[in-house]
Amino acid sequence: MLITRRGGELVLVDQNEHGRLAGELTLRWGNSGFEAPTRREQVRIGTARHDDGWLEADAAPLFNAEARRPLHFLEIPLEDHLPLYQRGVDRIYQEDAYAGLLVSMHWTGLYRNRWGMQDGGVGITPAATPLDEIREKHVADEERRWAETKKSLVKDSIRSDFEARLWYHYDLLQVWDLFSLYASLADTTPGDGPAVPLASTLRTIDQRPGPRVIQLAPSRVGGPRTDLTLTPVKPGVVVVDPFPFDGEVVATLSARTIPDRAYADEDDLAAALGAAEERTLECRFTKP
C-alpha cells in the first residue's frame, strides 16, 4: 500500500494499481534521445506486475500498530517482505520467463540499492541481524535461477548483447517504477528549493512540494545515463527534463481515501476501508 497524508485524509494506492501505471509507461518510453525497449510486451508484463507479491497484503491490508494506520510500503519488516516478493516472482516466472527474470532482478535489487542505481538503499535494509543471512540466501538463490533462465532464453543470441539489453530493461523498470511512485505519492503543487532525489522522499507519508530527481536513467543500451528532473509548474502538471517519452503523458491512478485518524486495530481499519471514498489521482508529465 502506498500512503500519503493529504488535507485530513489518508490517500491509499494499491501496489497493483501503481504497477499498472508503471506498465503503461513502458509503451510511451522512447524518442530521439531515449531508446525504446525491445521485447516490449514481456517488459510491460514484468513492469506492470513487479509488485504482484503485494496483492494479498494490500487486500488485507497490513496494519502499522505503532502509527495506528495502514502500513506504508517501506515500513514492512524484512521477514514479511521476503516471502511476499517470493510468491509474486514465482507466479510471474510460471507465466513468462523473461518477465519473471526482470521481476526477480527488481526484487533482489531492493536489497542491493537497485543494483547500484540508487544511493542510500531503498528502505528494506535491516541492521545486522540473523535476517541478513536469510536475505543473502534469497539473493543467491535468485541469482542461480537467473543463470538457468538466461540459458533458456539466450538461444542463438549473442550472449553479451542479450545481457546488455536485459540490464537496460532492468534499469528502465526502476525508472518507470519511480515515475509511477511519484504519481502515486508526490505533492505535485509547485514548490521552491533544490531538486532532491525522488527515491529519498518515498519513505514518509507527509510529502512536501518541490522538484525531484530520478537519478541515472539510461538513454540507450550501453549509452550514457542522465538525471531526470521533475518540476511541478502548476498543480498536477510536471515538467520532465530531459523528456524521455514519445509525447505528453497523462498518468492516472485509482485511489481510496479514509480519515486521517488513529485506528484501534485491524477491524477498525477494515471498517473504514469498507466505507472508503474512491478518488482519481492525475499527473501530467510534459516537455520543458
Brief description of this entry?
With 288 residues, the protein is an alpha+beta fold. The protein has helices spanning 15-26, 40-48, 55-59, 78-95, 97-109, 131-154, 159-185, 266-274, and strands at residues 2-6, 9-13, 63-64, 69-70, 196-197, 212-218, 225-234, 237-241, 249-259, 277-286. This is DUF3891 family protein.
Query: How many E strands?
Result: 10
* Largest β-sheet summary: 8 strands, mixed
Beginning-to-end CA distance, first to last residue: 32 Å
Helix/strand order: EEHHHEEHHHHEEEEEHE
Q: Kindly give the count of domains.
A: 1
Mean pLDDT: 92
Return the structural class.
alpha+beta
Strand order of the largest sheet: 1-2-9-10-8-7-6-5
Evaluate the radius of gyration. Answer: 19 Å
The backbone outline, from C-alpha atoms, is globular
Low-pLDDT runs of 5+ residues are none
Total number of helical segments? 8
Approximate helicity band: 40-55%
Strand content: 15-25%
